[in-house]
Amino acid sequence: MFTGIIKTLGTLEDLRESNGVTTFRIATEWAPELEVDESIAVQGVCLTVVSHDEKTFDVNVVAETLSKTTLGSWEKGQSLNLERSLRLDQGLSGHFVQGHVDGVGKVSSIEIDQENRHVWFEVSQEMVDYVVPRGSITIDGVSLTLARVEGPRFMITIIPYTWDHTCFATLKEGDMVNIEFDIITKTVVHVQKRLP
């Protein structure tokens, strides 16, 4: 379980595929503190640390995850949002995030309003029911609030601090992002769809 509050960035140092499994090597200041088997959210995707040293850690990813997230398009050198799992003695900022990506969305436009960015995203029609005005959403691992909704399009206002301290600083029109909708919203919609 995570909160969507990004504390640090990592850099993709290497990726390699073997027997249907892709291993990503990520450099971060957290590397020495990590433990094997620890869950870590990378761009909003919950992954398992399989090894680490003083500078990097490795995670393994299967084809299913590559096909349903942006991980399949990652390139060496790119920055990645990182979040360690929520501890029971930790305050809850953001909202409950599972790290189970629901799908991929596209940046349709970025509007600059003084220091803020109004970013419009578009999702597939099958995800529209989960797009709730003023509801919580996770984009590339960042907990955000939906400001406006227009069918499959929605807008998020990103404050300067979040823009500068996450991978959003490199976001541009046409980019694909990992999206996870709020678990409470998904549960309510799921139950309603099953009612007679």
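[next item in queue]
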Amino acid sequence: MESMVGLGLRRDIAEEILDSSVLRELKAFLDDNQVTIYSEHLSYTKSKNAHLYDLLPIPFRQDAVAHVVDRIRRVQDLLERPLAIENVSYYTPVAAEMSEIEFINEIVEGADCKILLDVNNVYVNAFNHNYDAKEFIDGIPLERVAYIHMAGHEKVAPDLIIDTHGQPIIDPVYELFEWTIQKMDPVPVLLERDYNFADLEQIQGELTQLKSILNKHWEVKHESA
């Protein structure tokens, strides 16, 4: 979210200003290409001039909610289009004062923005932090979901899986995806793969399986997955 908010949450958060030149360039690009919605991760990547190049968790706290809501509202006004905020995978909470779902919902409601629902991230977080993935999705205002991401992950320990975008989607994530889409209207779906491209047949198989699930439950009138 560097270009969007510069989320360096600290006592002097007022010093973190939006990069207006980047936002102007972004708006011109979105306008030129007729992009109607823009997405960003709900994460922390920059403080002052320190660019961290990773999607770090924002503390689940009320001051963080207020900070992010203000930034999203201002950016939506500047871009003249809604933002879709993506739930991210995280491996430890930071100074949490509320649950992840409470944090996300307060931001989405306060900012009046959309959601990019990453189903694999829900599964990863549910496994790592011992909560029920379906209960989490039931708590999301699914009418605000504008996009869905699907991806693979890697189990690196009995109690830890890492969101990698480099492995095949596992059956429980497909099952969570199918369970989720039955609760909502059709939206675009994206298969994320960042590396391990050699087995194109396997990747095509993932696309085929996603499309089969979508066609089973949605009347799909656009290219999905």
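[queue empty]
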